[in-house]
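Posting here for the record, re: pyridoxal-5'-phosphate.
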Amino acid sequence: MQSTKLADVCYDIRGPVLVEAKRLEEQGHRILKLNIGNPAPFGFSAPDEILVDVIRNLSDAEGYSDSQGLLSARTAIVSHYQDRGLDTSVTVDDVWLGNGVSELIVMALQAMLNNGDEVLVPAPDYPLWTAATSLAGGTPVHYRCDESEGWLPDLDDLRAKISARTKAIVLINPNNPTGAVYPRPLLEDLAEIARQHSLTVLADEIYDKILYDDASHVPFAVIAPDLFTLTFNGLSKAYRLAGFRAGWLLAGAPKSHAANYLEGLTILANMRLCANVPAQHAIQTALGGRQSIRDLVLPGGRLLEQRDAAVSALRAIPGVSCVEPKGALYVFPRLDPEVYPIVDDQRFVLDFLRDQHVLLVQGTGFNWPTPDHLRIVTLPHVEVLTEAIGRLGTFLADGGAD
Ligand code: PLP
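Prediction output follows.
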């Protein structure tokens, strides 16, 4: 019955491991779910001003909106990026609002790819990019990010994987699952590659405000104003509003040779009528208000403390190493294969779940090629995170990886 279009489509974050976690919950077990970057269940609430504004606007949100989205939200998005240095030629007509970034990723690739077109996707990646490329008939080609270089993209590997069929490069910065934040010179080099090969850059910047230590983020569209770039962002993470499903896509200049592509994108946007309208009302207030995420990531902030606790608890386990994330909400530790010879990391995650009642996601679920990494969200309080990672240490010490 299932369409063959889904044959290569895989999204393990909510896959078989979550099904097993639900089964255990139904049996009465309490499962600690560290598999999804959903801030609200961990006690992170959205700024009050956003909620108040959405409630005030509810009676104006009963009808469909324009397919591209409310003008007030799109105006706020354009001025937000212009404040960050974006080319002033970008206008409200270059913004599409969606039900989260997820919907826009699917639409952007559906509008772009013919069967067999290739998209360069990082490994590891946020797996929706690989899945949505396959669903659109494209072929995801993974370029390596180098753990020994703080998980920065290996541009030689990326260059070597460009073919006559390559259409676009996906850039996830700050990165999920690794937490890497890319320095400006690397982005400039990447822009040069895109320029030489006439590739569109798909910049997923949903974690752009979740930055630790001295990390700073520059939108790719600002680095390369001469390239056609699609920038993706939304309210799910920095504004703790994942359930509202509010995201945007901004098409950066120049659009002359992309007019036909943008017409296609508009057809897809029209077909789904519009994004959730109450949530669109949140965007202007979110971007224009006080950026309260800073309280969470600066010294003394909850997210920073949790990142630190997760990294040190992991590094205390023999045979486990962890690059310190500079952004986002995850750690992506390595289990030394010499010490822990894991053959099937999904099986490992399932065994750990059944034994210790903690749900993580296996590294191969992020299209990492070898079964030697795990992704853990750093959203729980320090005590909970330390407890969960301690249970991982116990499980490993008891031979759980054998
Ligand atoms: N892009 C990345 C890198 C993500 O990590 C996520 C969610 O975890 C998304 C996109 C999807 O976000 P949204 O809630 O806006 O659909």
